[in-house]
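Please review this one:
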Amino acid sequence: MCCLFGLIDSRNQFSAKEKSRILSILAAECEERGTDATGIAYCSHRHLSIYKRPIAAHRMRFRIPADSRVIMGHTRMTTQGDARKNRNNHPFLGYAENKPFALAHNGVLWNDGILRRTKRLPKTRIETDSYAAVQLLEQKNALDFSSLKDMAETVEGSFTFTVLDQRENLYFVKGDNPLCLYYYPHCGLYLYASTEAILNRALKRLHLPIGKPERVELNCGDIVKLRPSGQMERSSFDAANLLCPWSSFSLYPVQRKAVPQQHRAEQEYLDTLKGVAAYYGYEPSSIDELLDVGFSTDEIEELLYERMIY
């Protein structure tokens, strides 16, 4: 249970102080999906920087450089890799063609150990499952649609990835985990978060006089490249193993019911909880049973975090 968030100031119309405020409020709202660690990645003067700490987002102090137009963020709920060891937190640093990139992941990968053996990925002190995605991209020695497609089709589990390169190109690799992207044509601003509910709560607090947003559709299997200028390019990967009439982690086939629009965020949240439960070896029915006896989703998330579901 994690949250992706960020912004793209495509016309460079916002000051460093304004961007820092936007990121601060957006990150604080993202605490709903994780408080163990918070991190951001951004570029300044063609240098990629990653700033992350094992603390909740509201305790972070964001100081975004004036020339940074793209900021990629993550709040973490730990599933694998002790968050107190900052190397286990997102975003992760990688290199392709000797150029740095940053990767953040919402979801759980359950074949990372197998990949390290079968793909002969280098040994690392990073314990987080998400880091296997970084190593797969490094092994291809490229960061483009082709390498991202190969990575997305190789990992198994639940995921949506964001990847930022040194030129401020931001990639979205949309799997079965939620992501909402808004575009404000009046000022060229893009804002995103893992759920629309989180994004809308942040916007109410921000009170930005920038008009109404347009929602950019991101579907499972999409790979989107968003340049710092706002230009968008699209590609795709084979998501056949994700696009099925079951819940978002396909190891356990539970029939998905049609969900009204207003309840989609709750259903996505519940699906992610079940994905985390599967990571720990518990069937989705365990979550449903806890709900039936009166546990809230927040209480279940805490149980998962403590690995105490019986």
The mean pLDDT is 87.
